[in-house]
């Protein structure tokens, strides 16, 4: 898909979506100041609106406007503020090759000044989807099959995020690996991250095939 991109901006967009595994809204919100070229880090603003908040003592569900827990009465406004701040931003490492492309892009003046901010891309969501779809079509990539529903779905920005997650699970599906993936993707629930293990896992297939290898009987 990268090779089919017609300009450095489009190539960088596709690369970041896959190499960082970020959401399209997060990629389009990236600012030049969010990139630390010396440390190889990118700060992502977590833009998914739903944030689940709980009392640190009794674990009761809380709303953003709560000052006290409705169940145990504990003062929770500071805990809520700290949790929202923690969820709002996450700092991700980025590989050296992608970092170099990103640095070259910025130095060439690729960033766009909008509303007081220097955005990396400066395009809207619709245009970003077009770029991904067009590059996928040029690369000859067919529609994907949803493993849970069996329905076909086209290549989209979120499929690149899925591809990153599946790749990460194939490389390391240990408990620590899944925990780091959860943090990297910004998932609140571990169950959301664990779904990628089901998609990527080949244990069942290997187990079944071994049942019929070198068996001393015939049917």
Structural summary, described in words:
The chain is of the alpha+beta class. 46% of the residues lie in helices and 12% in strands. It is built from 9 helices and 9 strands. It has helices at 8-19, 24-28, 77-88, 96-107, 125-138, 157-171, 175-185, 190-200, 203-210; strands at 35-36, 41-45, 53-54, 61-62, 89-93, 112-114, 117-119, 144-145, 152-153. Strands 1-2-5 form a 3-stranded antiparallel sheet. It has a two-stranded antiparallel ribbon with strand order 3-4. Strands 6-7 form a two-stranded antiparallel sheet. A hairpin with a 4-residue loop joins strand 1 (35-36) and strand 2 (41-45). Helix 1 (8-19) packs antiparallel against helix 4 and helix 7 packs across helix 8 (190-200). The protein is globular and about 60 Å long.
Question: What is the element layout, followed by pairings?
Answer:
Layout: H1 8-19, H2 24-28, E1 35-36, E2 41-45, E3 53-54, E4 61-62, H3 77-88, E5 89-93, H4 96-107, E6 112-114, E7 117-119, H5 125-138, E8 144-145, E9 152-153, H6 157-171, H7 175-185, H8 190-200, H9 203-210
Helix pairs in contact: 1-4, 1-6, 6-8, 7-8
Number of strands: 9
The main sheet orders its strands as: 1-2-5
Question: What is the CA-based Rg, rounded?
Answer: 21 Å
So how many helices?
A: 9
Distance between the termini: 47 Å
Main sheet, how many strands, which sense, barrel? 3 strands, antiparallel
Q: Which H/E pattern describes the elements?
A: HHEEEEHEHEEHEEHHHH
- Summing up helix and strand content along with how strands pair, one would put the structural category as alpha+beta
Which descriptor suits the 3D outline? globular
Strand content: 5-15%
Which whole number gives the mean pLDDT?
84
Helix content: 40-55%
Low-pLDDT residue intervals, each spanning 5 or more residues: none
């Amino acid at each position: 898909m990268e090779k089919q991109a017609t300009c450095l901006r489009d190539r960088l967009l596709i690369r970041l979506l896959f190499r960082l595994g970020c959401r399209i809204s997060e990629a389009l919100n990236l600012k030049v100041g969010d990139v630390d070229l010396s440390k190889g880090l990118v700060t992502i603003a977590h833009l998914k609106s739903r944030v689940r908040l709980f009392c640190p003592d009794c674990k009761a569900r809380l709303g953003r406007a709560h000052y006290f827990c409705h169940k145990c009465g504990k003062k929770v406004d500071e805990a809520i503020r700290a949790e929202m701040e923690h969820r709002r931003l996450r700092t991700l490492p980025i590989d050296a090759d992608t970092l170099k492309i990103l640095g070259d892009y910025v130095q060439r003046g690729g960033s766009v000044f909008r509303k007081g901010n220097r955005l990396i891309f400066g395009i809207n969501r619709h245009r970003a989807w077009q770029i991904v779809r067009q590059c996928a079509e040029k690369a000859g990539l067919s529609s994907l099959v949803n493993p849970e529903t069996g329905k076909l779905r086209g290549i989209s920005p979120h499929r690149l995020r899925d591809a990153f997650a599946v790749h990460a699970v194939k490389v390391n599906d240990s408990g620590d690996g899944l925990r780091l993936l959860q943090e990297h993707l910004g998932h609140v629930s571990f169950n959301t991250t664990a779904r990628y293990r089901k998609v990527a896992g080949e244990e069942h297939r290997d187990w079944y095939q071994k049942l019929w290898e070198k068996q001393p009987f015939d049917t």
